Amino acid sequence: MLGDIEPDMREVIVEGRTDVALMQWFFSRAVPESDVQLFAVQDRVLIPDDTVKSRGQNTGARGLVITTATIVHENSPESDRIIFVADRDCYSIGLDSCPEIGNLLYTDYTSMESYYFSPKVLGKMLSVALRAPKEIVAEKLVSEITPVLIDLFLIRATLRSLPEPKKLAGKVIDRLKFSSDGHALDIVDALLRSCPGSSKEDLMAIFSALEVSPESDVRHYIRGHDISAVVIKYVASMHARLFREDRRHLSQPDAMSICLVTCLELVDLENFGLFRALKTYASRKPAPPE
What we know:
By secondary structure, the protein is α/β, with parallel strands linked by helices. Helices cover 47% and strands 8% of the residues. The protein is built from 13 helices and 6 strands. The protein has a 4-stranded parallel beta sheet with strand order 2-1-3-4, sandwiched between helices. Helix 6 packs across helix 8 (187-194), helix 6 (138-160) crosses helix 10 and helix 10 (224-238) crosses helix 11. The longest helix has 23 residues, at 138-160. It is globular. The chain starts with a helix and ends in a 7-residue tail after the last helix.
């Protein structure tokens, strides 16, 4: 067994390769003496989609992580050499389950991207990556885009709740604009574009039934992949000059997402539950051989 050959080694399996890169950086700063190997689930696990579905999970990286963690736990319930990390996704509104398994950890909010949705991180991106003047402040950006991000999260949840689930139409975010009067996201239009031929009343009934707790952190109600796209739409609408010349590539969501990840600092992560648990896991001394 690999655990017998290298008892000090720890292994963490996560959803994506960007998650791997972020955690490698975190461990190198928070627990530099640890021996932790990190893998994206797609690079480490081969399980058929039928098996994922039979375990009550949706296909994709999240379902694969949870299914693998469950199978590993069933076969070695006492082993904690391998730890799995999955996004919470729509757990806050009951659309995704988060099974409590000893070898499975979850993000504190909907996804790994949620950790960079803060004025501090976005402020660093504005000032360093986009070289924005000091008059353009991250606090205003956050307050302006938060309602849009929550509405997009609930629109997606509505479409997913249909008897035949639908995905958000691409043109919804493509058409999104901001102005001094607010934003142009029309919830009804977004639902009907994504689900043509459906009843507006039926769709809005589902949408209206979804509840956002006013006492919860908004990051429980924001889809991670929407953050970069909506940040770009806000900057392009309100401060288009910031995407000129050598900053033009940051108007692409993937590039903006990578930029925001690199704006995180150790202090931004080490107090969150997930990263505290990972630090404890990496710091733990192996049990002595019997």
